[in-house]
Known about the structure:
The structure holds 2 protein chains of 2 kinds. Chain A is an alpha+beta fold. Chain A has 4 helices and 16 strands. In chain A, strands 8-9-10-12-11 form a 5-stranded mixed beta barrel. In chain A, strand 6 and strand 7 form a beta hairpin. By secondary structure, chain B is of the alpha+beta class. Chain B contains 4 helices and 10 strands. Chain B has a 5-stranded mixed beta sheet. In chain B, a hairpin with a 2-residue loop joins strand 2 (40-46) and strand 3.
Amino acid sequence: MDISKKIVLPGEEIDLNGMKQGNGIYHENGKYYAYQLGMLQVYNNYVNLIQLSGKYYPVKNDRVIGKVIDIAPSFWILDIKGPYPGFLHINDTPWKSGSGELSKILGTGDTVFAKVNEITESKQIWLSLKDAGLRKLEGGHIVTVQPTKVSRIIGKAGSMVNMIKEMTNVKIQLGQNGIVWLDGEPDRVLQVIKILKIIEEEAHTSGLTDRVKKILEDMR
Amino acid sequence: MGMVSEVKLIDENGLRIDGRKFNELRPISIEVGILNRADGSAYIEWGGNKVIAAVYGPREAFPKHTQNPSKAVVNARYNMAAFSVDERKRPGPDRRATEISKIISEALEATIFVEQFPRTAIDVYIEVLQADAGTRIAGLTAASVALADAGIPMRDMIAGCAAGKVDGKVVLDLNKEEDNYGQADVPFALIPRTGEVVLLQMDGNLTRAEFEEAIEMSTKAAMFISNLQREALMTKYSRAEEREETKEEPKNGNSGEDAHE
């Protein structure tokens, strides 16, 4: 039986059919069970469980958008909408501490597009700005979407998000944690917010990219 | 409890005042995902009971001294609305609500993988809108569905049911009249997959044989309710399955590369 795309509930027994145990599956007394609600996916002979709902759980190398909520002597503390705050150390940024005043570089309320650099054993999330495209986000608007719907907004190889960018001339930065940063003409930005809501609600339907394209054309 | 019954609760045909047989449940319906702002939510109608459960978290526990460095703390809050009972209930936590909140927290903690989220809190709010006996189990049943909806890792979803003694006979799932004028009430909840008991209380007196009969009936009912919970979740999430089938290319959650400008 093909177990790919099967929806499983927490504690449901999973028959791996000789395949290997991947993410989101635990074993007890030689049997395998689903760890949380999700969908099974087979990849490289591994059975993985893909989360369908709920909070954002940071994974190494995720690109996220975070807001500075506190400043410590050598690092910033950021809200990344996960179970834990994110820490951004000055050494993981392109800036030099120099004067030692971190608030001159990033103040509370500032937003950055960062990547998850390391998750320690005690679940401390360390972020980094040292990679292509990572930066402080200046100006613009912030909206939140369900983290599980972010991949739908990106679309196949970025088809959805690129089309929206092209047709509205709005700069879009998507965080894997469900935070979206938008910058452009105010009415255009409002249009994009509307489009994001449509994608979120209709994420389960087919031909969505074409429908969104038509809606965008009508909006012009 | 313990009051001398003026009302005849079981008639000569062995039927109870609402027409149920001794081992019959009240009608139950569960709906998933009714609140937008919560991470997970559920609504249950169990006979005359109407209960909403909402789950938030895991999130950083505050105040900081409540954090546990080795596991998540589960904060369940059971609350009855002022209008949920015949005579207005004085709002706010009372002795009874505090007790129920505690036992529900402990029951949920037994099924959640709390050790996965050190220093966090998982908040579970159970609001009883209309009460008709058996609200703690209705609340717990809804709470475990809401936890699953919130994507929280669990061993299994808790299910439960109450049994009791009415007119000298052991019956399943007491309603308000039976609870008020019956001789005993035994709320009971377990982890269906392993059979571990996570909640068990007794108000009133039963003989050992009667107690065992009550537990046997409740266990059977809990397994039935466990299926209702699963069906409710599947109704919501089978839509997601459709999505995945029509999606041009399924993407894993950690494909952060695509978020590049």
